[in-house]
Amino acid sequence: MKEWWLQVGLLGVPLLAVYLHIPPPQLSPALRSWKSSGSFFTYKDLNIFYRDSSGAVGSSDVVVLLHGFPTSSYDWSKIWEGLTQRFHRVIALDFLGFGFSDKPRPHGYSIFEQATIVEGLLRHLGLRHQRINLLSHDYGDTVAQELLH
User: Fold this and answer.
1) pLDDT tens, residue by residue, 50-89
2) Of 3.40.50.1820, 3.40.1390.30, 1.20.1250.20, 2.30.42.10, which CATH number belongs to 26-146?
3) What is the model's pTM?
4) Which of 53, 65, 71, 104 is deepest in the core (most CB within 10 A)?
């Protein structure tokens, strides 16, 4: 039993090799639809997925939705239609490392970087000087607090 690490290695290495070669699962029809109705913008050579919908006529309000951990902008899918009836624009993104956005490895992910990416998206969409409403939960709450700071 002295070389337990050898036994773990002999078992673990082949399992890791198999795991790394398993293809990703197929997207559900709902996720395929979500992705096809979105776009990507580039932040420091990284692709960030976002969705931007026009909504209520007569309103100038914009809402940006910040998702939780460990999910994606798809968190908001069930209330998206209702939000478009209230707001002129409804915008959601997948944070770096989540959803359809790039997942660079190795990378030092941080809340500050996620907030900077949100600001970059708003610049990209021409909303830099517009009043923005934030709706967030979980991980997105921390990013929202940094944005408010």
Assistant:
1) 999 998 777 789 999 999 999 999 999 999 999 999 999 9
2) 3.40.50.1820
3) 0.83
4) 65
